[in-house]
């Protein structure tokens, strides 16, 4: 199970709204998805599942940080402003 709580000001907790969550609540979208890793920015979250490395993204996408509509069949790309060095290079 995956639980979320916090300010949720940009919808980054994955509940489909931006209302603050003051006590831990299950994130329905991620239930039974075998999430094994989270990548968190200041106003977005990416969750990676174990079965097939599907990436779920929630929150602010005004600089493309959720990677929506990106073709990633062969390569892995970083996107967004990188204002705080959040892009990572893997060699």
TrEMBL record:
PROSITE patterns per the UniProt record, alphabetical = RCC1_3
Q: What is this protein called?
A: Uncharacterized protein
The record's annotation in InterPro entries points to: RCC1/BLIP-II, Reg_chr_condens
Domain of life the protein comes from = Eukaryota
| The RCC repeat ranges on this chain | 1-51
Pfam family example for this protein? RCC1
